Each structure stands twice: as C-alpha cells, then as structure tokens.
Amino acid sequence: MKTTDVLIIGSGIAGIAAAVQLAQNPQRKIILLTRSPDVHESNTFWAQGGIIRRGPGDDSADLLVQDILAAGAGASLPESARILAEEGPRLLDDLLIGQAQVQFDHESDGSLSYGQEAAHSRRRIVHVGDGTGAAISKGLVALLKKYPNIEVLSNATAVDLITYPHHSRDPLDNYRSIRCYGAYVFDRTGKAIHRTLAAVTVLATGGLGRIFRNTTNPPGARGDGIAMAARAGARIINAEYIQFHPTALAAPGAEGFLISEAVRGEGGVLLDPEGHPFMQKYSPEWKDLAPRDIVARAIHSEMEANGYSHVMLDIGSHMPADVLKSRFPNIYAECMRVGLDITREPIPVVPAAHYSCGGVAVNEWGRASIANLYAVGEVSCTGLHGANRLASTSLLEGLVWGHRAGQKIEETLNAGTFPIPTRADIPPWDESGLINDSDPALIQGDMQTIQNIMWHYVGLIRSGDRLSRAIRELRHLQNEIETFYQKTKLSDGLIGLRNAVEVALIVAQAAYHNRQSRGCHYRTDAVEAGDRLL
Q1: Strand partners, 436
Q2: Per the confidence metrics, is the pTM higher than 0.90?
Q3: Which one of 222, 306, 472, 484 is separated from 91 by 20 to 30 angstroms, measured CA to CA?
Q4: Catalytic pick from 54, 179, 292, 297?
Q5: What is the CATH number of domain 2-240+357-415?
Q6: How far is Cα 248 from Cα 348, in angstroms, rounded to an integer?
C-alpha cells in the first residue's frame, strides 16, 4: 500500500502539468500513474497538428474566444473559452518553451512559425513538424524527472477509485458526501492489486476513441477515467458529443493513422475518388477548412451516397515536395511505408472517432462533483468544447486546466487538514476465490463487438432506432462482461473491457436522450434542428 498527498492517473500534458505545478512545493508528495510501460505513451504523444498560441498581427484573445464559441455550435461555456484564451499563451511560453524547452518550428528570420487549421480565423498554431505531441511529451517527461518529490509508477492500471462510503470508513466524522481517497491499482508486472491512498486524486486518463471501430486514438484510450468516475458517482456531461476527425488514413496496415488537419490548413483539398472537389457543396464559405463536424459528415455523406470506400486528400498539388516533406515528415514517412508518395498522389482518407467533447463535469479549476477528485484533459468536461472542439484546443486545454488544478489543490491542501484513511479503513482487493485467468480471445471478441455497435449505431449519423438497438445490445453485453469480471483474475485487458462497455453505454444513452442535432451529435430524426447540420 502506498500513501501520498496527490495521486495523478495519466501521463499526458494535463497530468504532467498538474504534477509539475504541485511539485513546486518540495514537501508535497505526488504519485503519477501510467498504465503503459513507457511514461511517454498518452494521447498527447500522438497529437500531430499543434497547439494554439496567440498569432502574429491582429490576433487576440477575443478573436480566439469567438472562434471557439463558433466551432462549439453554440454549446461552449464562454467563461472556459476566456480562461483558455487568456491563460493559455502565457503558460505555453512559460512551461512548454521555457521549462520543458520544446523547440517549436521557426521561420528563417527566427520568429515562431504559425500554421492554419480549420475554423480558425487567424494563423495561430505553433508546431513541431507534424509531431508536436511527441515533442511536447518528451519535453514534459524530461521536466518531470527533475522533481524528486514526483514518483512515477508505470505499468500500473487504475482499477477503481477508492471512495467513502463505498470502499472506506470516512476519517472525517459525520461527513456524508462522497469523497475520493485514491485508487485500487493493478500492477501489470507483478499481477497484484495495491491500494494507493491520497488526500486528492486527479484523473488525467485521456479519451475513449477505442470504443469505436475506426479511431485515431492509441490502445489505452478506452474511457477508463470516465468509467471509474461514473461508478464512483461523479457527474458525467455532454457524453454524446464525440468528434470524428475527417481524415484518417485509409490504407492497409495503417488504418487509423491521423492525417492532421494542418494538411488542409496548408492548402490540402478533399476530392472524391474521381478527382472532383466537393466541400463547396457543404460549406461554401469555409470549404475544406470548415469545422470538423461538417467536414466529417460531408465525407460520410459522399461515401454513403456514392458507395465510396474512402475519399482523397490532395496536398501534393498544392505544396512543393521538399516543403511538404519538411512540414509533414511523419505523415510522409508513414504514407511511404504503405506505398503512397503524397508528393505525387492524393491520400485516401475516411472519418474516425477522435475526441470526446464531454466527460467528467468539472468547474473552472478542474474539480469534479466528488470531494477530493479532480479531472483534467480529455477525460473532463470544462464546457470549453461545447458540441464540437475547435482544432488544436485539446493540448492547450490540458496544459491550462492541469496547471489550474495543481494551483487549486496546493491552495486547498495548505488551507486545511485532509486526513487519509489508514490501512485498516480500506479493505484489500480480494481475489482469493478467483481461479480463472483472463481469456484474451473473449476480451478481444467482446471489445470488437462494442466497437462495431458504436461505429454503426452511435457513429457520425444517429437515429432513435439505431441508438435503441445500441443500448439494448450494450446492456446485454455489459451483463455478460460483469459476470466474466466477477469470476476472473484481473488483467489490463479485462479492466479496459469493463470500462469500455460502461462508457459505450454512457455515450449511447446520452445520444438517445438528446434529440436535437448540434455539432458532432447528428440525428436524422432530430425533433428540433440545432446549428450547422449539412
């Protein structure tokens, strides 16, 4: 059993930003968990396009707020957009450029290089080629290792949050609300479950894209944090708003590889397989730089109406080959690996599940509805993204709210006493009666079933009939998985499967109850039309 001041679950930009802020107090003890053997592995690492900084010329916080609210289809929280626009650029300069020493791309005159992305009214995206997330992750992990009061536990999967009154005796007399005191943690190396107790717990577990058949997300994006929070009783909001990225590579051996929105920002044009542009039909003003929900549904509509298996994205005709290779080295290399020379031929692309705009409901400091629990990054819902996320706001949101959560937690811990339960208060995890090992074939089969249900019935275009079918099938599957779970020794795959079916149900039920089409939640049987359909 371990005891700490703050337990942070997740090693992306949000989790590390919170850890670094807390570590400024050398007396503060922090444990950071990651389910991967490699602390770099996170949604952050795989982010390509870039991160928002205030652009040159007449760009301003006001203009960024306007763009966020417009992209969010009228459902974003203006206060959250203002926080991001005001605090984000300063934190980027201080933490990423100053402390983590991330080397963003520069122009020949030494100034920062700014990219353009969809629904942005100005060029304001700073980047490191098309591997911005990897550069940020490497810089932050190196910074993390400088603090001796941060203990990193890798190969460790959080199983469930430890809460009063569910798991523990409350050390605070007569306290009757739900409180979080850490988590049960599965050691993937030793195959044991440990109690990790904390005064404050921070969820920074990333997204849920892996519950869909087609996704740009890495394997760990199973919705673990949302599922744990929901089981503990935390409020989950806006779960129906799942953003589908318009352009994932559609080539054997590379399915799901993200083709960054920055490709269209630099002049890339979407074409049907016969070579005809089509976005002017769906968004005469923005065309290929329309908000993601419009572009994704436009591609889906073209594919469905004409029987296409994909559409094409042409950048080679709009950018010199040497410039293209320099600006998008990873995309160029991955396409070459599967036999595509994008300097000479267009890229076959399809939409794929990309980002969860909803999540654990939090306030302006990242605090959830359960006492002593915070959530930051994609697992949370700050209200920033509304019904559709503006491109390149995700990394900045993680940076801002990770930092803000760290500030508020330190302030709160300094202001009062936060007793932590003792070993006697928290029962150990009991596997004494379990004799069955996890069967990978059953886990993989059930996960594929979840992914297919979500893709076909809870995907880009939804209806009441599709959603009803999804809920019925997911409920049946959840019962089967829970029975399996109660009889089987834990594994990371089994933990992820249990979380995935729970989160899939949360998303499907939220989509069923919201009968208004808006942003990336589109229903063919909408009772009242929201903004920006097609």
Answers
A1: 488
A2: yes
A3: 222
A4: 292
A5: 3.50.50.60
A6: 8
**Quick one: tokens of 308?**
């296409």
CA 379, CA 236: separation in Å to the nearest integer? 10
Domain ranges of the chain: 2-240+357-415, 247-352, 440-489+491-529
Q: How far is Cα 453 from Cα 447, in angstroms, rounded to an integer? A: 10
User: What pLDDT is attached to residue 533?
Assistant: 45
Give the per-residue pLDDT at 532: 46
Class of 247-352 in CATH = alpha beta
Is the domain defined by 440-489+491-529 classed in CATH 1.20.58.100?
yes
DSSP per-residue letters across 262-279: HHHHTT-EEE-TTS-B-H
Is cis: bond before 26, omega within 30 of 0?
no
pLDDT at residue 168 in the model: 63
Residue 26, token pair as written in the block: 């050398």
Residue 80 and residue 364 in contact, taking contact as beta carbons nearer than 8 Å: yes
For 156-168, the pLDDT digits (tens) are 999 999 998 766 6
**Rounded Cα–Cα distance for residues 363 and 94 (Å):** 24
Burial of 254 (0-12, 13-18, 19+ CB in 10 A): middle
- Scanning 416-491, the segments in alpha helix (DSSP H) are 440-457, 464-487
Report the largest interatomic distance among the alpha carbons of the chain, rounded to a whole angstrom: 71
Single out the residue of 400, 355, 406 nearest to residue 382, CA to CA.
400
Beta bridge partners of 314: 269
- Lowest-confidence region among 192-201, 317-326, 428-437: 428-437
Torsion of CA 492, 497, 503, 506, to 10 degrees: -150
Task: State the Cα–Cα distance between residues 186 and 168, nearest whole angstrom.
Answer: 18
Q: Is 90 tagged catalytic? A: no
Total residue count of the chain as it appears in this document: 534
- Tokens at residue 45, please? 């690492």
- Name the DSSP class of 117: -
Bridge-partner residues for 311, per DSSP? Answer: 349
pLDDT tens digits, residue range 428-482? 888 888 888 889 999 999 999 999 999 999 999 999 999 999 999 999 999 999 9
